[in-house]
Amino acid sequence: MTKSEETNQRASGRVETYSPPPWAKDAHTPSFAEYQKRWQESINDPEKFWGKLASELVWDKDYDKVLEWNRPFAKWFTGGKLNASVQCLDKFQDTETFDKTALIWIGEPGERREITYRQLHEEVNQFAAGLKELGYQKGDRVAIYLPMIPELVVATLACARIGAIHTVIFAGFSADSIRDRVEDSGATLVITSDGAWRRGSKILLKNIVDDALGQIDSVKNVVVVQRNTENLEEFTHSMTPDRDTYYTKVISTGPATCEPESMDSEDPLFILYTSGTTGKPKGIYHTHAGYLLGTMISTREVFDLKSNDVFWCTADVGWITGHSYIIYGPMQNGVTQVMYEGAPNFPNPDRFWEIVAAEKVSIFYTAPTAIRAFMKWGDNWPQKHDLSSLRLLGTVGEPINPEAWRWYHKTIGAERCPIVDTWWQTETGTISLTPLPGATTTKPGSATFPFYGIDAVILDEAGEELQTGQGLLAIRKPWPAMMRGIWGDEQRYRDTYWSKWGGKYYFPGDGAFRDDDGYFWIVGRVDDVVNTSGHRIGTAELESAFVEHETVTEAAVIGIPHEIKGEGLVGFVTLRDGNEPSEELAVELRAWIGEKIGSFAKPERVIFAADLPKTRSGKIMRRLLRDVATGKALGDVTTLADPGVMNELREQYQDD
Ligand code: WT7
Questions:
Q1: Domain 528-655 is in which class?
Q2: Do 127 and 159 touch, CB atoms closer than 8 A?
């Protein structure tokens, strides 16, 4: 099928369908009728629906009210008290689950560790007690900059245990990005490691942290995990006296147990930074009770978790997917999980399939960009392995093209495993549009229907609800795991998410349509946010990084279709007088973005432009840049301040 045929097919929603598997009758939601009934209940009477489920949380003190909705601010389970680490660990104390494997951890160089819930509980207690000895307590902010190692899970849950607010910073971020996040959150403690392995290379994380903290004195302590306990010298680093301590020391100095702090339902649990349409990332924050309930229930329903499942979510804990579907969701369900440190193609492109076969993974959750990379690497890699343990597949992060969906279904799932295409965001906290494996007939490329409690609609610009056809995705009612705000910036929360339709709807920033069967299809972001390899990047953030370079006076960044990454970034750059465009400068500028933000944000191309196309009011016309970059015919340029700019740009782009 050609690309345009595929696009047309997707745009009409007319594709072949896939029925639920034979085991549907044993699923948590066993039929579509059952889904519809429960969904209707969750929308008609959210307090009753979630109130019933909330009895599954362990409460120190009962809540008074399920929901207080003071648009756009929701409070769930007000007056209640509980602790997140208790839901993930202590809850299992007198059950078989306590001695079950919680994590099968695999390091990129090949180490393997099995850690039970009991062992995790022990280490979380010790680390939490050690953090208290260091003087940290409820309400403090703690930045965690760790690779995918078990200590990342321990650190996160230890913060939750003492009521400190964690802000996990993806270990691919640069020193500058760490500094922004530490400053904005007011973190006083940073937990990091000396290093990590990535695609066979050492990454010296502690050095990056030292760089970041150079000019910040609000950080009192840095706790350092030594990645290789066999060879402590492996990752070169230095320790700043009176500030830096080793993780092993912190673990051993405090008492062996630490009473969990009783947290209010609405106390913040974590802050997670995500990109928006300005140069400054937003600190999305989530609170305890609603988030915990939402992640517990959605993990169970969407992935149909059973006690003998081996669950593997390939995301990094540094993104929301890892928060919700590695830590809080799966652990509250007491499931066994695979946690892998490294790259999917190291040492070979079958590393994932080797792990699936060896660990008998039954539920596998990954991103479209990874699926497309696997497709490209060839079928022989997965075919070398016995993948028959798999029973359910998931995808998240960006719209999945039907071609990749079908490949996933056939080559990985052997046409036996249903696929859950889950749409959600850092802000929604939990999966929000998704098939339920026992209930939903799927269509490749569609996230199908709203999850329980999600009152999703499609609106046009004016706020008219559309039953079918294309518009903007919106959510009408609050749900338990929704964000509670942007850290330190209430106005930005109102403006970004609630201002579009007079405060009546939550606006996620995605374009979407509903087909004639009522299926939701996500088209992609409608704002200046680019989704590259499933990572969300605000173009404004890149633009401000570009102009910080001494040679650059102005920059415009756009996303263009990319075969593997979904979208790739292209930077159009205007140089200061006295600087000449050159191949070397383009290379330097790409590296600069890597340093300023992180290498995942490096643009595919840098294009030097004598001038950028602008409207008369001075707004950069990105649509035109996109046309240039994708080789499309120029649209209407009559509103351009200087229409000649476009022809010049096009010539330059073709010269490249
Ligand atoms: C944006 C949120 C949620 C975890 C990963 C990303 C896009 C996410 C899908 C999907 C189509 C999707 C949206 C959304 N997105 N999942 N299944 N189909 N688009 O979290 O960084 O907060 O990004 O990712 O555009 O708004 P995030």
A1: alpha beta
A2: no
